[in-house]
Amino acid sequence: MDFLNSLLFVPSSIQAIVVLSIICAAGLALGKVRILGISLGVAFVFFVGIVAGHFGLKLEPHVLDYAESFGLILFIYALGLQVGPGFFSSFLHGGVMLNVWGLFLIFTGTALTLILGKLCSVSIPDMMGILCGATTNTPALGAAQQALESIHISSSEAALGCAVAYPLGVVGVIFAILFVKKFFVRPADMKVHNTDHNDTYIAAYTVCNPALYGKTIRLVVDKSHLKFVISRLWRNNQVIVPSSMQKLEKGDTVLIVATEKEVEELEMIFGKKEEKDWNNGKIDWNAVDGEIESRNVIVSRPELNGKRLGDLQIRKSYGINISRVTRGDVKLLATYDLRLLYGDSLTIVGKREAIDNVAKFVGNTMKNLNEPNMMAIFIGMILGLVVGFFPINIWGMSAPVRLGIAGGPILVGILVGTFGPRFHLITYTTVSANLMLRKLGLSLYLACLGVSAGARFFEVVVRPEGLMWIGLGFLITFVPVVVTGLIVLKLHKVDFPSISGMLCGSMANPMALTYLNDIMPGDRASVSYATVYPISMFVRVIIVQVIVMFFV
């Protein structure tokens, strides 16, 4: 049995792999157990790590630090890549409002921290540690410790306060969101609203505007401020796949792909809108017209990554129409200025031979998509760390502020996911591959964090002030989340998954986000999380340093 003892208790790189694997496996298994209908999922890894640390399982410090940092960086960067393509659209259409309320939550929690510290006679250094633990924000803890040491005050108590408050900080956000969902959220609030301004809507119109007779489609599009695609045209019971030079005539019926908000304006331009619903998902498009097919083809040629659709001249060269581009769960309008991304699905309308030729041109090979481009992962993580450790000097601060290993990678992940294709960097990963990267990274991070906290966790809990610190931390977590969630729910027409993602991002709580993704539809929670996370992280790092400088 000596070899088992050395494998589990003698610190080494092999021992670290064995211990972390056991913790992750046990935590993920327990995370599937539901108590009163609630399962903590991957967050259970953290608590298994605490128990393991309490019973003496130790890892070499540098190995522990490496695994914890690598896990967090991998999770955060993969999340940024996932939400990057829809981030700026989300930010411009609701993201500003979400960030405002994220800042409201942060300042509410900070004010509550100062009030509770005063009422309970807890020192500012201790309260800063409790605040960082309650908000599961280790970069902010590092900033607070640095600020304390710069004025020659020990930072050990701050670290201890963070460790004590952290466990309930993890689950407190989950409990707060479930509390709001249980007692205040209606079924309609759970419906994910479309926030992407480019999501498509299909409608048919009869051309009865004399100003359009004899005009080409290209001229009509250029003179209109609207963006739309005419995918089919019916004339005298014959179907036409119209080119941009196709002239419109009285009585033509055009099938238009646009956005839902533009339906009424298009009716004013073209004429009468048909009553038939073309968006119910039950239409067999290949049965609509005998000679015309509708087919989805996949962009799998690396050379097309980042190319503008109009520059490729696909419509003109092959005599087809591209009505929509499906990217993840979002259907985008196939306008001339839309940049194609590796893995996009093109909805093509035309004759079978023409579509076959287009499929050959764009690749249409699923096998290529299943091979992830790991270069983009490693390059992105390097750039994320460069950004995270870049010093930002702020007037009045004795030390520069940094986004750290959490803020930098998610910011770069968003930028790479959004703009990488313009530099012909393939950032596409399958949904399952991205999910595996995130789960692997988060599991490693939580296991290491639990082992670190477990060594002294129960020792602090039994101290006279230990339970009080835990209670204060829970209040700092629970109250601001509930208050902010209720206010946003009542004042704004925002779906609850988006609100929940904003709350998790403002609290820097990836474990709660992972839990939400398991119980809520779509990826709106992840998009909202990434929308508010960078600014919230930056503000929290600054706030703790400001409080130390001015209140200690």
List key phrases describing it.
552 residues; Alpha-Beta Plaits; 5-stranded antiparallel sheet; 9% strand; elongated
Describe the protein:
With 552 residues, the chain is an alpha+beta fold. It has 2 domains: 87-194 and 372-442 and 461-551, no CATH class; 201-368, 2-Layer Sandwich (Alpha-Beta Plaits), CATH 3.30.70. It is built from 21 helices and 9 strands. The chain has helices at residues 2-9, 13-30, 44-54, 61-119, 124-134, 138-150, 156-184, 187-190, 217-223, 263-270, 285-288, 314-318, 352-362, 366-369, 374-388, 404-419, 431-461, 466-491, 496-506, 510-519, 524-551; strands spanning 201-207, 229-235, 238-240, 253-258, 271-273, 293-298, 321-327, 330-333, 345-350. The strands form 2 sheets. It has a 5-stranded antiparallel sheet. Helix 2 packs across helix 3 and helix 6 (138-150) packs parallel to helix 21 (524-551). The longest helix has 59 residues, at 61-119. The model is unreliable at 194-198 (pLDDT under 50).
Secondary structure elements and pairings:
Layout: H1 2-9, H2 13-30, H3 44-54, H4 61-119, H5 124-134, H6 138-150, H7 156-184, H8 187-190, E1 201-207, H9 217-223, E2 229-235, E3 238-240, E4 253-258, H10 263-270, E5 271-273, H11 285-288, E6 293-298, H12 314-318, E7 321-327, E8 330-333, E9 345-350, H13 352-362, H14 366-369, H15 374-388, H16 404-419, H17 431-461, H18 466-491, H19 496-506, H20 510-519, H21 524-551
Antiparallel strand pairs: 1-4, 1-5, 2-3, 2-4, 6-9, 7-8, 7-9
Helix pairs in contact: 1-2, 2-3, 2-17, 3-17, 4-5, 4-15, 4-16, 4-17, 4-18, 4-19, 4-21, 5-6, 5-7, 5-18, 6-7, 6-21, 7-18, 7-20, 15-16, 16-21, 18-19, 19-20, 19-21
